[in-house]
């Protein structure tokens, strides 16, 4: 929790078009900060500028350059910043990170920060766990589809992978049958998220599931990993491949 007194301001400078694991870098960094309990962060986009290559980039009403500078700022305690810097350096790549000592004259509304070690990427072999989360397609979290928010939360917590399945026929606790029909898609279809990782990492993520899923079901089961090959370029396998290899 931030209080009045000494703190650290972190400024991260990126190109608007830079990506991290297939998503915009600034979006990935913002997700990481949010799900690591940082008190607040702001993304600012420049309208003109140049970088290390000394090429000037500018925006107009016809075309927005993807090379324009983006700046992410947040203020936190020195301990929290030290905890996050290693992962941020990896995510930012060729971008720049600036750290400044600052003083908080008046803290914003108190928010709870969670101090958790930054998990590293590991190769899973042998025994592991599979987490299945069952929710409705229309479920929301902070104004966004719940399944999308869960995927972002899983990515921010460095879970190995996740696949979202959309049901074409089924019913839930209310006993109503939901079915896709020709020329009509149900907006209350069943959604299942499937995640395979180590038990420790999945157990650590369960409090986030409890917080985000108001109505739904989450189950944790044992699985045997037959083969797990980290890819240099992430390509999501098809549901059929996942069903065959993971379950």
Q: Describe it for me?
A:
This protein is α+β, with helices and mostly antiparallel strands and 247 residues long. Helix content is 24%, strand content 35%. The chain contains five helices and 16 strands. Strand 2 and strand 3 form a beta hairpin. Helix 1 runs antiparallel to helix 2. The chain is elongated. The C terminus is likely disordered.
Order of strands across the biggest sheet?
A: 4-7-1-8
Give the low-pLDDT segments.
57-64, 182-186, 231-247
CATH topology of the largest domain: Alpha-Beta Plaits
Shape: elongated
Order of helices and strands: EEEHEEEEHEEEEHEEEEHEH
Instruction: Say what oligomer this is.
Output: single chain
Number of domains: 2
Biggest sheet features: 4 strands, antiparallel
CATH class of the largest domain: Alpha Beta
The assigned CATH architecture of the largest domain is 2-Layer Sandwich
C-alpha Rg (nearest Å): 21 Å
Query: Which structural category fits the helices and strands?
Result: alpha+beta
Helix content: 10-25%
Tell me the number of strands.
Answer: 16
The number of helices is 5
Strand content: 25-35%
């Amino acid at each position: 929790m931030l209080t009045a007194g000494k703190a650290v301001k972190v400024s991260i400078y990126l190109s608007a078009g830079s990506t991290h694991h297939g998503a915009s870098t600034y979006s990935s960094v913002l997700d990481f900060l949010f799900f690591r309990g940082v008190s607040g962060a702001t993304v600012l986009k420049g309208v003109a500028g140049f970088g290390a290559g000394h090429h000037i980039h500018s925006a107009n009403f016809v075309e927005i350059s993807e090379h324009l500078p983006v700046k992410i700022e947040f203020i936190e305690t020195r301990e929290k910043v030290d905890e996050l810097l290693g992962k941020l350096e990896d995510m930012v790549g060729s971008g720049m990170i600036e750290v400044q000592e600052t003083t908080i004259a008046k803290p914003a509304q108190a928010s709870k920060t969670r101090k958790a070690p930054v998990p590293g990427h590991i190769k899973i072999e042998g025994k592991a766990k599979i987490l299945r989360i069952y929710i409705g397609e229309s479920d929301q979290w902070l104004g966004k589809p719940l399944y999308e928010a869960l995927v972002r939360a899983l990515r921010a917590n460095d879970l190995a992978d996740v696949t979202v399945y959309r049901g074409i026929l089924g019913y839930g606790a209310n006993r109503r049958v939901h079915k896709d029909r020709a020329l009509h898609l149900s907006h209350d279809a069943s959604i299942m998220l499937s995640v395979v990782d180590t038990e420790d990492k999945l157990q650590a993520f369960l409090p986030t599931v409890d917080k985000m899923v108001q109505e739904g079901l989450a189950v944790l089961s044992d699985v045997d990993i037959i083969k797990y090959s980290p890819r240099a370029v992430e390509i999501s396998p098809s549901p059929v491949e996942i069903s065959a290899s993971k379950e």
